[in-house]
Amino acid sequence: MKTKRLFFQLMLIVTVMLANAGPALAADSDLDLTFSNPNLNNLVWDMVLQSDGKVLIGGQFTSIEGQTRNKVARLNANGTLDTSFGDPNVSSGQVYALAIQPDGKVLIGGGFISVGGQTRNKVARLNVDGTLDTSFVDPNVGFSGGFPIVNALAIQPDGKVLIGGDFSIVGGQTRYYIARLNVDGTVDTTFGASNPALNGYVETVALQSDGKVLVGGGFTMFGSTARNRVARLNANGTLDATFANPNVNASVLTLQIQPDGKVLIGGTFTTVGGTAMSSVARLNSTGTRDSTFVDPNVNTGVEVYKLALQSDGKIFIAGAFTTVGGQTRNRIARLNANGTLDATFGDPNVGSSVLALALQPDGTLLIGGAFTAVNGQTRRYAARLGNPPLIYAEPGSGTCGGNLPCVNSLQMAIDYVATGGEVRYYGGTYNEAVTLNKSATLNFVGSSNVTITGNFSISAGTFNAPVAYTLAFQGDFTNSGGTFSHNNGTAAFTGTGTQTITGNTTFYNLTIDGSSTLQTNAIITANGITHNAASVTQENRTISSNSTYTFNLAEASVNFDNRGSLNSLQVNRTESAHPQENFAGGAANILNRYYTLTPNANPTQADVCFGYTDAELGGLNESNLRLCRWTGSAWACPERGVSSNTTSNLVCADSVNEFSDWVIGQVGPTAVTLNSFSARTRELTGLRLAFGAIALAGMGWLVWRKCARQ
Which of 80, 428, 561, 616 could form a disulfide with 673 if both were Cys (CB 3.0 to 4.6 A apart)? Predict the structure, then answer.
C-alpha cells in the first residue's frame, strides 16, 4: 500500500457492499434532516468549515445537484450548493486536502495537474468565488519515482504553507514527502533544504502553536534516525529529537493535537510502542504512548481516516470500521477522553467509508466519504449528524427569513432540535400533527396567524404561543406535562377536537367553538394582563363534569350555551363605577367595577360568588362583606344562603334567580374592592353548573365549575 488513497480505491467496491441496519440511534448520532442531500456524483476526501457556516468540500466528484463542480465545491449551511462559488475546473486528478486562509482564499492539494485551465501541479489557491488565484504560482510538485500526490496542507500564521504527501521535488528543489511553500507558491528554501529526509509518504500534517510540525504517514526513518510513522520537526524542517520514536507498526493517516499537547493518532496500526492499540491511540507530548488512553478496540486492520476533537475531550473517529469496543458502529463512533467507547453516541449506520469530518460549533458533525446512505436514507457522499440547538420552521415554501437551519415542518423541527434546544417558528398553516415530547422550547418569531390542522400534544418542554396573533387548533389539544404559555393574542379551538389539559396551560384570549369538547378535569387558565375585549367564548358545546376554567376578567365576557334548562348565561364585567351609587353606607362602600348577569333564556337558580384580595380589606372583618344586586331602584344585599371563604376570598349567595348588576360591598364606613366573580347555575337534573371565582395576585379571575350536586 503506497498511500491510503491507493488502498481505498482497491477496497471501495467491498466496503459499499457492507452497509447494514443499525440499532436505534442516540440523539446526537441522528441524521440531521435539516441538512439536505447535496447529491454529489462521487466521493468526498476532505471538508472544511468556513466561519459563516458554509462548507468547502474536495474530492473526486464532478457534479452537485446536477451542476458541474470539478473536485471542489462550496455548500450552504443547509447542504445546498452555494452557486456564488463557481466551478474551479480541477482536472486530471482528485483533491485530497483543503485549507482556508484568513482572507477566505482556499488552498487545495491532491493529484491534479491543472486548475481553471492553467497548469497547477498538485497545489493551487482559489479566490473566494472559486476562480484560480493566479498570484499563487504553480509549485510544480513532482516525484522522480512515480505519480506525485499532496495529501495534507497546513497554513502557518505567517501565511506559509506546509505540504505533505508522496513527492520528491517541489519547485525544482529536492523535498522528500514534506515541504513548505511561500505565500506566493514558491518553495521555501529555508525549510528542509540541507537536512536528511523522511523515507516514506506523509498523510497528515499538524502545526503546533510553537511552530513545530507533527507529521504522520508510512515512513519509518528520518535520515538515519528511526521514526516509525510519527515524527515532530522543528520550525526549519529538522528532526525534533525531544519527541521520541512512538514506534507505530503501520500507517498513521490522521492526527490531532489536544490543548494539553498530547497527540491523537488514527490509521491502520495495531500496536504503538509495542502495546496493542487498534487504529487509534494517544501520544504524550514527548512522543511516548499515553498509557491512560486505552485500546478502543476498533475492528482489526480497518482504517481510521479522520479524527475530530470535541471541547469536552471526547473524540470522533471516522473510517471504514464497523465495530468499536465490541459494539456496532458503522464508520463513525465517539470515544470518551480515555479511549473507551462513548455509548451515548449511537450507531449512525453510515453505508460506506467516512473519509472527512468537520465538527461545527453547535456540536453537529459534517461527514464526507464514499457512502450513499446514512441510517437508511439517501445521502450521497456528504451528510450531517446531530441535533442542532436551534432550528427555524415555516410551513409551505417559507424560507424562515433566510435563517438556517430552516424546515417546513414544525414536527420535524421538534424531532431534530437538540434536547434543551429552541425551535423558532413562523406564521402560516402547519398541515400536520404536532407533538412536543422533549425538553425544548418553541418560540414564535413570525408576523401572521398560526394554524395547526392536526392533533397537538405536549408532554414535555415549553410551547410559547404567538404574541398578538391567533393560534388556531383544528384537532385535539392535549397537555399532559409540558408548559403551554399564551401571553397575548387569541387562541382558538376551531375544529372537532378534544381538549385534555392537565399540564401548565395559560391562555390570554380563548375561543372554543361549538364542535370542540373539553375533557373531564381539564384546567384552562387565561393569565393575561388587563386589556380591552379579552373574551372567552364557549358556544353550543358539551362541558364535562368536574372541569375548572379560570380566566382573566378585565372587561371579559363568558358564554356557556345549550345547557338544557340553563341555556346560557353571559357575565360581563364593566371596569367603571356603577351609575347607581346610592349604596347603603355611601358610594365609597362599593367596588369601582360591576358585573352584569344576562341570561338568554329562562334560567334556573344560580349560586353567585364575588372575590376580593386581603390587601383590599383595609383591616375590616371579612364577615361584614355582602353581595349586593341592583334591583332597578335600590341595592339589595341577599341574606339567604350567604357564605364566605376567607381562604379563597369569596363571598357567595345561594339560590339567586335575579340576574342584573352585582357588586360586593359593605354596609359600613369602608369600601371593599371586588376582584372576581363566580356564578353557579342549578339544573333540574340535580347537577350544578358553577361559575366560580378566585382572586389571585390582585387580578380579577372567573372560575366556572360543574360538580355533582351533593
Answer: 616
Out of 47-56, 314-323, 639-648, least confident range: 639-648
Q: What is the DSSP string of 208-225?
A: -TTS-EEEEES--EETTE
The residue among 680, 667, 614, 666 whose CA lies nearest residue 645 is 614
Contacts of 437 (CB under 8 A, 6+ apart): 414, 457, 458, 459, 460, 461
User: Reduced to 3 states, what is the DSSP secondary structure of residue 400?
Assistant: helix
Instruction: Tell me how far apart the alpha carbons of residues 258 and 82 are, in angstroms, rounded to a whole number.
Output: 33
pLDDT tops 70 at residue 541 = no
Return the sign of the alpha-carbon dihedral for residues 341, 343, 345, 351. positive
DSSP result, 6-59: HHHHHHHHHHHTT-----PPPGGGSB-TTS----BSS-EEEEEE-TTS-EEEEE
Alpha-carbon distance of 320 to 278, in angstroms, equals 13
Contacts of 281 (CB under 8 A, 6+ apart): 248, 264, 265, 269, 272, 289, 290, 293, 295
> Which amino acid is present at 201?
Y
156, 149 contact by CB (below 8 A): no
Q: What is the pLDDT of residues 573-621, one digit of tens each?
A: 565 667 766 665 555 565 555 666 655 455 445 555 566 666 666 555 6
More confident residue, 58 or 582: 58
Whose grid coordinates read 453516541?
Answer: 345
- Is residue 71 within 8 Å of residue 59, measured between CB atoms? yes
**Phi, psi at residue 256, to the nearest 5°?**
-135, 135
Q: Which among 126, 171, 130 is positioned nearest to 148, based on CA atoms? A: 171
C-alpha–C-alpha distance, residues 691 and 402, integer Å: 48
Per-residue pLDDT tens digits for 164-193: 999 999 999 999 999 999 999 999 999 987
Q: What is the DSSP string of 146-202?
A: S--EEEEEEE-TTS-EEEEEE-SEETTEE--SEEEE-TTS-B-TTSSSSS--BSS-E
pLDDT for residue 439 is more than 70: yes
Measured CA to CA, the distance from residue 315 to residue 300 in angstroms comes to 19
Beta-bridge mates of residue 275:
272
Q: Which residues partner with 281 through β-bridges?
A: 265
Closest CA to 699 of 547, 506, 567: 506
Q: Are the CB atoms for 358 and 350 separated by under 8 Å?
A: no
